[in-house]
Amino acid sequence: MADDGLKYVVHVFGKEGCAKCAMLNRRLDTLLASPPWQGRFVKKYQDLGTEDGLMAFCMAQCLNPSRVPAMLVTQVDAEGRESYIENPTPGAEDPVCRRSRLYQYIGLQTDYSDEGKGIITPAMVEAVLKEADRVVVS
After folding, report:
1. Domains (ranges, CATH) in the chain?
2. Of the candidates 101, 132, 124, which has an alpha carbon nearest to the alpha carbon of residue 27?
3. Helix locations, the chain, DSSP H
4. How far apart are CA 33 and CA 31, in angstroms?
């Protein structure tokens, strides 16, 4: 695991009334409430029905609006600035996240194909947290 001083923000992009968005929030909340994630990773919900949420979504420049809910992990530096964590293996096969994995940065977006069925599993969410931790430490 990474140094306890490292902090991350998990941006969850969703919209009001979206059951899948609510499910992703619950799954992430459950993970972040327990070690080793507790206190090191925090969630920030970005409601796409608001100007701030839409602006954060647009600034990410790596999410597809047709694949919400989505999540994107940022690292917080010593000055409190956030930066996206680059995916060290863009395009590589991922047996857990499959086509939900983001290409450029560490994160997920919903795969609504027949394969993905519109489901982001707890294992996918945890795999993203582990990947962020691993990439930043190495």
Report:
1. 7-137 (3.40.30.10)
2. 124
3. 19-32, 51-60, 122-137
4. 5
Number of other CB atoms surrounding residue 46 within 10 Å: 23
pLDDT above 70: residue 138: no
- The beta-strand segments (E) located in 28-106 are 41-47, 70-76, 82-84
**How confident is the model over 97-121, as pLDDT tens digits?**
999 999 999 999 999 999 989 999 9
Fill in the DSSP letter of residue 132. Answer: H
Nearest Cα residue to 84 out of 49, 136, 130: 136
pLDDT of 1 above 50: no
117: alpha, beta or left, given left = phi > 0 and alpha = psi -120 to 50? left
Nearest to 27 by CA among 118, 122, 116, 117: 122
Report the percentage of the chain scoring pLDDT > 90. 88
Q: Is residue 58 classed exposed, middle or buried when 0-12, 13-18 and 19+ CB atoms within 10 A define those classes?
A: exposed
pLDDT of amino acid 72: 98
Q: Do you know the residue count of the chain? A: 138
Global pTM reads 0.91
